[in-house]
Amino acid sequence: MRTIDLNADLGEGGSQDAALIALASSANIACGGHAGNDDTMRAAIDGCISAGVAIGAHPGYEDRENFGRRPMDLEPAAVAELVSRQIGRFAKLAARAGAEIHHVKPHGALYHQADHDPALAAAVAESVMCLLPGCGFYVPPAGALAVAGEAAGLDVWAEGFVDRRYQENGALVPRGEPGAVIGEPQDAIAQALQIACEQRAKTVTGTWFPMPARTLCVHGDSPQAVALLGAVRRALEAAGFAIRA
User: What are the backbone angles phi and psi of residue 54, rounded to the nearest 5°?
Assistant: First the structure.
């Protein structure tokens, strides 16, 4: 049986975490940078343990006003420090709960900037490797983060999105542009099946590009997140996929 992972973002202040945990096979838990605090991290960790969901750290720019989605001009050393600090805080809470950290996924603007900047990508990957040697690293396929993760010795998991549309170059359509976000379950299902079954994704212009994803993401802060994740999970299972990290 083919397998694929479904990941969702947790601990970001929304009210859907419990429902998302019930549908996901792995979770990206905000580490107090773009969102979250010790209480939300503990709650998300405990929920994942109870449900058997793989636990991941989700570090991001410390810019709560913009939810970590605004690009920032930071040197690689500063990025390495914030990633290390956030993962270290999260790891202490996970250890107290007896939980193993399965993966790390950078959040928002950090994810996208680092994927196009080899120096930032190396800073992120090496910080992860220092604290969590060999763990999973959820990143876009074939970009700077994947290259840096491989070089650092991390277990790179190429990630696709089922609730965002893609540009011709394989990057996500910026959130401010029309049609950037997929809100209809049938559209999310179509994109999930294209990625999972065909290892490719369709762009907004109708072209295709390779998407060899091991994990598919639904953003947890979307009002449609639970509906989309549930619909995608059912469709993938009907197509013969086992959902697991």
Answer: -65, 135
